[in-house]
Amino acid sequence: MPEIIIVKDEAEAGELYARCVADLIKAKPDAVLGLATGSSPLAAYQALAKVVKEEAIDVSQVRGFALDEYLGLPLTHPESYHQTIHRTVVEPLGLDPDKVHVPGDVLDGCPIEDGAKVAGAGAAYDAAIEAAGGIDVQILGIGTDGHIGFNEPGSSLASGTRVKTLAEQTRIDNARFFDNDIDQVPMHCITQGIGTIMKARHLVLLAFGSGKAEAIAETCEGGVSAFCPASALQMHPHATIIVDEAAASRL
Ligand code: GLP
């Protein structure tokens, strides 16, 4: 079962993540970090950037693989996960941008209809993760419907990186990044699969606020089921779930 840590706030959660990753990088300078977008990991990235600076940790060899990307947005779009990961992780930490990968990088705005280009991008991404030796620490947020990455309810727990259709609820949740206009939110995405995520050696899932309480209860105490993709963490040998009181309120 995952270890569950209840913290005061996002800053405290961020410090736990930062300590864990800073120690990893000191021991393994070319550590492979699994990166996530969303608001939940932001304090963790800030805390890590602070520790890296204070302790003068060399991050020049650190590698990164992001979880997911919208399909159909050009890489230059400010809400593309390519840009988001650059803005929130690569720049503040001072990582080498050439060592940080986002699943849609090779697709760059390509529409799902371009089947020839889309086909194979997922398998190639999984192969790149394997070639890097696998992910050491994967940070995760969680959707209000229990999704991880963009693996919506019903996703195979054994899935690899692939193209998916976004759930209506996720498009509603993410409309806040697109002028509150759901029509601007892409319909499709490319996401690491649950099987891909489960291969990471350590999973750290962060969730804050009462809006996540039901998803966290299902994740930790519901049965393992594709209807709550995050419940797969129950089967992971080293998963840590860090939540505040509000997100833990249904446990
Ligand atoms: C998006 C991302 C997920 C993230 C989720 C929750 O759907 N694809 O990886 O976990 O949002 O975001 P937030 O942390 O902002 O609640």
From TrEMBL:
Source organism: Bifidobacterium pullorum subsp. saeculare
Active-site residues annotated for this sequence: 68, 145, 147, 152
GO terms for cellular component: cytoplasm
Catalysed transformations (reactions): alpha-D-glucosamine 6-phosphate + H2O = beta-D-fructose 6-phosphate + NH4(+)
Name of the protein in its database record: Glucosamine-6-phosphate deaminase
Gene Ontology biological-process entries: carbohydrate metabolic process; glucosamine catabolic process; N-acetylglucosamine catabolic process; N-acetylneuraminate catabolic process
UniProt cross-references to NCBIfam families, sorted A to Z: nagB, PRK00443.1-4
Domain of life of the organism encoding this protein: Bacteria
GO molecular function (one): glucosamine-6-phosphate deaminase activity
Keyword Coiled coil set for record: no
Function: Catalyzes the reversible isomerization-deamination of glucosamine 6-phosphate (GlcN6P) to form fructose 6-phosphate (Fru6P) and ammonium ion.
InterPro entries found in the cross-reference section: Glc/Gal-6P_isomerase (IPR006148), Glucosamine6P_isomerase (IPR004547), Glucosamine6P_isomerase_CS (IPR018321), NagB/RpiA_transferase-like (IPR037171)
Glucosamine/galactosamine-6-phosphate isomerase domain: residues covered: 12-236
Chain segments annotated as transmembrane: none
Pathway annotation: Amino-sugar metabolism; N-acetylneuraminate degradation; D-fructose 6-phosphate from N-acetylneuraminate: step 5/5
Lineage: Bacteria, Bacillati, Actinomycetota, Actinomycetes, Bifidobacteriales
EC number: 3.5.99.6
Family the UniProt entry places it in: Belongs to the glucosamine/galactosamine-6-phosphate isomerase family. NagB subfamily.
Keywords, alphabetical: Allosteric enzyme, Carbohydrate metabolism, Hydrolase
